[in-house]
Amino acid sequence: MCAKRVLGVRARLSILVLGCVIPMATAAGLLLADHYQRGRQQLIDNTLTRAQAAAAALDREFDLMIAGLQALATSRQLHDGELAGFHVRATQAIANMHADSVVLVGLDGGLLLSTRRPYGTTLPKLPRTPLLKQILASGQPGVSALFPGPLAGELIYTVGVPVRQDGTITMTLNATAKPPQLDALLKEQQLPRTWLAGILDTQGKIAVRSHDSARYVGHSATPALMQHLAQSAEGAFESKSLDGIPVYTVYSTAPRSKWVVAMGIPLDELTAGLKRALAWLVAGTVTALVLGLLLAWQMGTAIAGSVQALVAPARMVGQGELPDIRLQPLREANDLRQALLDAANQLREALAAARENADRLALAAEAADLGLWVRDLVQQQVWASPLWRRLFGFGPEETVTLHAVLQRVHPDDRASAAAVLTAPHQRYHTEFRLLLAGGTVRWISSRGSVEAGADGQPRLVRGISQDVSERKQAELAIQQKQQEVTRLSRVAMLGELSGALAHELNQPLTAILSNAQAAQRFLRAPQPALDEVTEILGDIVAADRRAGEIIRRLRSLFGKADSQQQPILASALATEVAALLRNELINRGVALKLDVQVDDAEVLADRVQLQQVLINLLVNACDAMAGCAPGTATVTLRCTRDGDGMLGFVVSDCGPGIADGQLERIFDPFFSTKEHGMGLGLSICRNIASAHGGKLWAANLDGGGAAFHLSLPEAA
Amino acid sequence: MSAAPWINLVDDQPDVRKALQRLLASAGHQVRGFGSAEEFLAGEAPREAGCIVLDLSMPGMDGLGLQRLLAERASLLPVIFLSGHGDLASGVQAMKAGATDFLTKPVDEEALLAAVHCALQRNAAARASQASQAAVQQRLDSLTPREREVLPLLAEGMLNKQIAAALGTAEQTIKIHRARILQKMQVRSVTALVRLLEQA
Questions:
Q1: pLDDT 10s digits, B136-148
Q2: Scanning every residue of chain A, which has its alpha carbon at the shortest distance from the alpha carbon of B65?
Q3: Which ipTM did the prediction report?
Q4: Residue A554, C-beta contacts closer than 8 angstroms, at least 6 positions apart
């Protein structure tokens, strides 16, 4: 069997579950990611808007201070140089301006007045005056960066407006505030608690921070933010906060003050939704997989169990048993179970019928004395029925092999039996003798037929063997009788020819006697001619030999020897027959024409029997021409090759031919057209022809007369 | 007599022919062999002295056929038959047709030589008889028609007067005819004339 691994139903169902769940989970994951991207972008966009709003609010905060300062700057007291009154007024105005103090700064940077100090107090000069320079340069109000306050030393920021007298800037009026002033601004944004938010001054220093504001105030923003600030007024990027928290930073620069509002969304928070959704997705997927696989496994187990539960019963059905099969949990399996049970019943019936048939066959074979056998050509094993074993002399347990069978075959028949049995044909029939222990000879008729396997090669041979000894003995007896009849018919025929044969023998005897007497006369002469006598003696010897030859032929024709087949030259046969009949033909006034067209052709035949056939045919021809005018009777013995490996002897006469309707009847036993005929000659001739594997038939010739055709297989 | 007689041996068997030829020759005969009747007829010399030793059964024309043919041709050659078997019917037929002898093979030399001797004698007599007949005929041929009319009457022993009455002529005329007939037939008396005619 092919060793290819086949997946079980459980594995297949598992694959089905995986195949369903994983694409769904993947699609959900992709949707989730897309959704997350959109949500995130929207959050960022919203946050940026918030930052912009916060930046605008920051500007408004500063504008509020600027407006307050500009109102103060127009006060008469300032113009009139009544700084004490201005101090009072300014102090009153502080609260409206969301400022801590109001400071008047001279063009040289010296503090002219501060609401923190009572009027008249000597005030220090500012170490650095960037805002002053900005205002002087632009003539417009400005907002400073954070710087340490000259009086309290705390970090503060200043909003300043120019004070003009007669169109010239004479000083600047500034409002200072501490960064916590801006806390409210951040709170207004109502950002989630975990979010970071901060306001940076123009230098990027932290003014206010949503968390740990006190700790980080005055610190520079993160380098990443500083870098982004240098490049654009607003933007968003991912980095870490100063506290080391991973955040997504969104910032916006206020248009007028150039202060910056930055908001940090903790990445945790930003991705929390995604993570949650992913967690759900993973949990859902895993749950679906686990549930699916569990179900698949359970279902697979049920199916596999049902199928496997039917395997053993199916095997039992195959062995012809009727198994007890449990009801199965699957309807289809139950159908199969029912089918198996039905099949088991049918098989049992069929087996019972087959056994019945086998029994009947065995009984019939036994009754008919038929030995049955089967030979496996591949395994070279032989099964044989008990009767066959008895026939061939094998014990019940003895192993039967072809070799052992052939050993029992009679040595004379062994070669031919081996040829047939070793490489059997499609269907064959052969007969041979067995020589069993104790010298018993048994004739066996063996028939077999070859069965081919799927590849067309012979696979096994089935056959029957039968003891045909009785029939064979009867056949042999018939054959012997036939031979005896043939011989007697020959003797009778020779009796008819005896006169001619005696005459034939007389010829050499005459020559011998006359020669001998001539020699005597020569010897009586006074001076005998011994040369002549020597020659005469030679002729006597030759004539004697001729006489011996004639006698030998006669003896063989009269002889009782068994049929002996040997190769015979067709031409020699024709010549011999012509010699035997020479005198008979002369006596009957018939001329014999020998027409032998084959010099080298041989037939495997019994010489005497073939001579008998040809003599019979020639004498018949002479009889047929008895009424012919003297000198016209001619019989022709022709010998030719007929094709298909057959040799033909044709005896044709010029008599009246054979009457219509008798061309076949003349070969019937006891049918004769002659007055004194027995009607056996042609019948026996035909038997002889058949025994030689040939044929004998008669035909009328066109020009009158009859022709008898003897056709025999030419010897290879 | 003239030349020595020939023995014509007709037999289709060469060895038999050769042996018989040899035997006859050893007995002092002149022998010629022929393989068949046809061969013999082709070389036939019927007026020769001799005889035929003939095989009864041969291919083609057989012995009896040849015998018949020779009789038709008024052959003087006597026929001795040789037969392979004592076929009585053939023997009777052959003897009736004038065969000198009918011998069966194998033939003993005594019988054969005796038969040959007998046949040759017979042939010699026949030949002699034929020769004298021819002489008488020659004399008869020299008679005139009137003399031939007279001759039978004369041989019957009638007198001149009786003959003259029978023929209606004068006795004297008959007397002259008688003298001329006796002269032409070279006899001296009517008795001698009658003996001569009987011989012929």
A1: 888 888 888 888 8
A2: A630
A3: 0.76
A4: A494, A501
